[in-house]
């Protein structure tokens, strides 16, 4: 049964997004494992030969850079991390390009920050660029632009970036390659532990199976991979977490073999517009709802009216993404605000007649219209 499910998942995927972690690409001395990159390029050729398109989200630039710059250990200060990224990124992309060219493809470097996803215009430009590159036969190699990223604009890890890139595409499969064989119920290296082959339905209890620590070279760990899987499956995508250090791991996945942990899509495919609102753009503010508004929005499918808003946090412009929160502090939805932060604070808790008195008119009856709203929990 599991093999049939895997084959169906593979057969439905038109584009494969492969996220490759630093632990997969770096040797013990922190130099790039060029043999591994060459082996991955050969497997990418196998996927391309099957008629599918491929995007790679690759870590490894900082790891390569601090090896090249001989820092001795992973730097912690922002200038040193950015210097390592600057030195390591061309080293990384050159090896990808050399290895892919031997199979008739070329690498196309794309460096992104979280701000690129927060702007709807830049988001659409990014999607058009990726589509054009894929149509022309290139293999996009995506990485965070660590050279300019700061704490305010960072993704935090490339697992989240990979999920966000996957959200740009139609009929994708996200494969996250790490140095473990998938999600375990216990410690991965314990003798009694076995990877979980299939997660049919997301449950937050899965987060209890893993710790929060990152690796020496990486920034995520299994917890960030689970968060990426949760976000991708929530919008109708399938995800596989597997061991990128295993020989021919991508080919085994393509063949439908029981490799890694498969997370099945939850429900139907979400439209691209709502993917961006609910799971891509970073909220710029928050509306805290009273119990009646919470019920109307979360369970009855209604728009959010001003009278149901108890509090407004943050600074945001009209049309930017905001979180919707219950009085208990749980964010349960995201949507586009019809008012900026100043006017939102003025009209919060007010009826339509009061809004007209305050603003001179009622530009919008809804604070957030249901067509521009996504329930996220």
Outline the fold blueprint.
Elements: H1 2-12, E1 15-20, H2 22-25, H3 34-49, E2 53-58, H4 61-68, H5 78-101, E3 107-112, H6 114-118, H7 120-135, E4 139-144, H8 158-166, E5 172-178, E6 198-199, H9 222-234, E7 238-243, H10 249-254, E8 261-263, H11 272-279, E9 285-289, H12 291-298, E10 304-305, E11 309-314, E12 321-325, E13 331-336, H13 341-347, H14 352-359, E14 366-368, E15 373-375
Parallel strand pairs: 1-2, 1-5, 2-4, 3-4, 5-7, 6-8, 9-12
Antiparallel strand pairs: 7-8, 9-11, 10-14, 12-13, 13-15
Helix pairs in contact: 3-5, 4-5, 8-9
Model description:
The chain has 377 residues and is α/β, with parallel strands linked by helices. The chain folds into 2 domains: 2-274, Acetylglutamate kinase-like (Carbamate kinase), CATH 3.40.1160.10; 283-375, Archaeosine Trna-guanine Transglycosylase, Chain: A, domain 4 (Roll). The chain is 38% helix and 19% strand. Strands 3-4-2-1-5-7-8-6 form an 8-stranded mixed beta sheet, sandwiched between helices. Helix 3 crosses helix 5 (78-101). The relative contact order is 0.11. The mean pLDDT is 89.
């Amino acid at each position: 049964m599991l093999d049939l499910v895997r084959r169906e998942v593979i057969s439905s995927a038109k584009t494969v997004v492969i996220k490759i972690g630093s632990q997969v690409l770096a040797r013990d001395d922190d130099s790039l494992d060029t043999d591994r990159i060459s082996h991955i390029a050969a497997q990418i050729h196998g996927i391309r030969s099957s008629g599918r398109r491929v995007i790679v989200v690759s870590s490894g630039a900082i790891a390569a850079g601090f090896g090249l710059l001989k820092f001795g250990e992973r730097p912690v200060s922002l200038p040193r991390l950015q210097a390592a990224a600057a030195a390591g990124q061309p080293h990384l992309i050159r090896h990808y390009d050399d290895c892919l060219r031997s199979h008739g493809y070329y690498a196309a470097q794309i460096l992104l920050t979280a701000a690129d996803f927060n702007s709807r215009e830049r988001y659409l430009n990014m999607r058009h660029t990726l589509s054009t590159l894929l149509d022309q036969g290139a293999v996009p190699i995506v990485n965070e632009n660590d050279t300019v990223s700061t704490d305010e604009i960072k993704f935090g890890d490339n697992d989240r970036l990979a999920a966000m890139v996957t959200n740009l595409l139609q009929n994708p499969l996200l494969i996250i390659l790490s140095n473990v064989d998938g999600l375990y119920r216990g410690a991965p290296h314990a003798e009694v532990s076995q990877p979980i082959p299939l997660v049919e339905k997301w449950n937050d209890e899965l987060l209890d199976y893993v710790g929060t620590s990152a690796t020496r070279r990486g920034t995520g760990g299994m917890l960030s991979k689970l968060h990426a899987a949760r976000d991708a499956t929530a919008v109708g995508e399938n995800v596989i977490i597997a061991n990128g250090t295993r020989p021919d791991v991508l080919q085994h996945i393509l063949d439908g073999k029981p490799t890694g942990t498969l997370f099945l899509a939850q429900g139907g495919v979400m439209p691209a517009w709502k993917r961006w609102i609910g799971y891509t753009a970073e909220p710029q503010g928050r509306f805290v709802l009273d119990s009646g508004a919470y019920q109307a929005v979360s369970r009855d499918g209604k728009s959010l009216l001003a009278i149901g808003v108890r509090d407004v946090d943050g600074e945001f412009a009209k049309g930017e993404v905001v979180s919707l929160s219950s009085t208990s502090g749980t964010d349960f939805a995201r949507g586009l605000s019809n008012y900026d932060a100043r006017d939102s604070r003025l009209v919060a808790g007010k009826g339509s007649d009061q809004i007209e008195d305050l603003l001179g008119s009622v530009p919008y009856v809804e604070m957030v219209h249901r067509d521009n709203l996504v329930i996220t929990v």
